[in-house]
Amino acid sequence: MLRIEHYTKAYGTKKAVDDLSIHILPGEIYGFIGHNGAGKTTTLKACAGILQFEEGEIFVDGVSIRKDPMACKKIMAYVPDNPDLYEFMKGWKYLNFVADVYGVSTADRNERLQRFVTLFGLQDAIGQPISSYSHGMKQKLALIAALVHKPKLILLDEPFVGLDPLASHELKQIMRKHCEEGGSIFFSTHVLEVAEKLCNKVAIIRGGKLVVSGTMEEVKGDSSLEEVFLELEDRHD
Amino acid sequence: MIKILIRARFGAMLASMIPKRKNKDSAKKSGKGTLVLMLLVYLYLFFVFGMLFFSAFLGLSMFYLPTGNAWMYFSMFVILSFAMMFIGSVFMAKSEIFEAKDNEMLLSMPIRPRDILASRMLGILLLNYVMEALVAIPCAVVWILFGGGSILSWIAFLLTVLALPFFGLAVTCLIAWVISLITSRLPKSPLLPVALFLIFFFGYFYLISNMETYLERFAAQGDQIAHSLQSIAPLYWVGAGIANANLWQLGLSLLIYLLPFVLTYYVLSRTLIKILTTKRGVHYKKTDISASVVAGGMKNALLKRELSRLLSSITYLLNSGISALFLPIAAIAAVIKRGDILAIFNESGLTGMENVICLVMVVGLTLIASMVLFTSASVSLEGKHLWVIRSLPVSSADILRAKLKLHYVIMVPTCMIFGLVVAIAYAPALPIAVMLVTLPALYCVWCANIGLICNLCHPVLDWINEAQVVKQGTAVMLTMLFSTLPVFVLAFLGGVLALISYWLSLIFLLGVMILGIVLSYRYLMHGGVARWDSLVN
User: Fold this and answer.
1) Residue A106 is assigned to a structural domain of this protein
2) A92 and B289: CB-CB below 8 Å?
3) Which of A220, B64, B152, B341 is the most exposed, fewest CB within 10 Å of its CB?
4) Is residue A81 assigned to a domain?
5) Domain enclosing residue A202, as ranges
6) How confident is the model over A174-206, as pLDDT tens digits?
7) Are A64 and A108 members of one domain?
8) What is the DSSP letter of B380?
């Protein structure tokens, strides 16, 4: 579903991500872990087609994001770490706008929006301007917008930040269900316990370079993910 | 601390006004060139406004300076300066002080509210000085032409020039606070700010459009009006303080200017935290999604997005679209005053001047249309939201087309309708009627294209306050230059050709405009798309 091959992104002379290769199959929840500034967001943005890069290639469902970004974007969704949405729109207008762009039919968008808005408890706020939303509410709205066209691949950057425990729980359920239905999720997180419980596979990145990747069992063995992460950090210091 | 805040505020202001350098080596040369161009734009705008006030003061001086009512001349200077300051900075004060996005961050830091307030007010104060200079310099020049005054009068004038912006600052801050309070208490609907904006500015336009009549009346009944206005003591003091170099009146005037500022600063600094952190007007209620969401086309959705952004921001609407309101005003005034306008020419023995009048109106309507700048900030306004549209399956060309379309949809029919109205009212020769209907409308298309090109070349995505990109941005300034200046060049060339043949003039102007539109559009769909794709926030 998502194949990152030798992806390299440099800002001036500094390489933010260096020769990264990851392969995510349908039905997988892939966790992306690393310290602040490790290159997680830079990678996710490139996968989402919003950041140009110099070296390597990224394929979404076999299609190059560089060569045909439109085809790739049609089947995926991206939620950034800080969901700055259109504050000049009301919640439902924003969702309707996103659904229009993806060409979702009235019946489908009605059913999906009703379901997700209720699931995330936004019924009372959906008619209000986004400028009046809290960070968590914006995060929920961005997640609903990402789900409205039923994407095959979902890219999430720190999706649990700002969510209340109930919404976090619902999001985990949605993520599992999405993968059970054959979709894939590639997400970054600092919450290692969540990654450990939720992910089939995990990749740890440090200073822009992939340190380790594989199935959860391969990466952590008998230890916890936290222990593995801290050990890898110590080894590099 | 206040120095740091001022540095940060002015850094942000300058960053939006001066073109950014992306690459140190390659941008050094082009950066200098653009900087010089920007200075020329500012000088050009200063010159245009300066000439406007120069002619106004020349008219006033003839009636007041040689007589014993010189104080009226200076009272008018104070009134006009204040009007310029107020109009120029009231919405900036609203967004800079009460709606800046970094308010909460700064309040959470160990910074005294009065320092935050002072750093923001200083920016508005400087803007007030610039606005005042537009009036003060022509006023002083005309005063010199009429012999000037004593050294004491000049000192009084200088003190007034220095103190008056503080009064303007106090009033703008208070009004901005009231507007901010009203808009925050009302339900968040794009129509409300728009309605507020229309009420405010139609009042302003009414005053400005009647300014000539007022000045004529002032001139015709100078003594009488001066005598009656003398009873309004503060108005008399501010003028007489300069004209008569009366220390007592000057002292009172300075008190009038400075006291409201001190009081405003004291009150706002004491209540700033409460003003900035009290949220009003948020009443959540259930919305029936099934009744609200209906499928529409992608292109329509993009256009609606641009329209929502425009209608939700007074700052954007005010600074980019204010001139659009002049079009109906100018056209309707031309129709209503048709008899008067023709009578002026008939009295001068010039009959059958409909064609000439209509040619002037073509230039007038085109000039007004050229001042609408919707696209010149539309890229920068994406700001931190850029990721939304970039992550969606929408081609860059479609996004740019939607930005252009907003300008076309609003301006082209407006220009055509009012051009047609004038053409019907004056019934000029056919080629001139065609000019009235087509040229201002076509020019709008050029303005939209050039505005978008300027913004793609000089985008600012990391703004804190949208006024930075809508009002002070490099792109806006360059667009103003590239949209208004060609009007004069084309008017001259078209005018010369009109002496030979109206048809020749029409064909030439249509040809030039269509060529400009095609070339600019082609650039947008190639170079513009590449620039859009390279944007990162």
Assistant:
1) yes
2) yes
3) B152
4) no
5) 2-75+154-236
6) 999 999 999 999 999 988 888 888 898 999 998
7) no
8) G
